Amino acid sequence: MSGTVPPKRKPEPCPVCAKPAQAEFQPFCSTRCADIDLGRWLTDRYAIPTDEDETEDEAPPRSR
């Protein structure tokens, strides 16, 4: 081992407000920003795209 310590990376910015993220709230900078992000998921402002054409109600029943 060479005994050298690699330089610390800059923390990634908070995805809500762009301030440096805090280890305690990763990847956010605070509880406030984490709560804002959760609220966006719960109110469908964020969504994960899918390639499915059918909704769950329209899908044929699964055989066992």
From TrEMBL:
Pfam families: YacG. Keywords: Metal-binding, Plasmid, Zinc. The keyword NADP does not apply. Signal peptide: none annotated. Binds 1 zinc ion. GO terms for molecular function: DNA topoisomerase type II (double strand cut, ATP-hydrolyzing) inhibitor activity; zinc ion binding. Its cofactor is Zn(2+). GO terms for biological process: regulation of DNA-templated transcription. It comes from the Bacteria. Zn(2+) binds at residues 14, 17, 29, 33. NCBIfam families: PRK01343.1 (NF002362). Inhibits all the catalytic activities of DNA gyrase by preventing its interaction with DNA. Acts by binding directly to the C-terminal domain of GyrB, which probably disrupts DNA binding by the gyrase. Interacts with GyrB. Belongs to the DNA gyrase inhibitor YacG family. This is DNA gyrase inhibitor YacG. The gene is yacG.
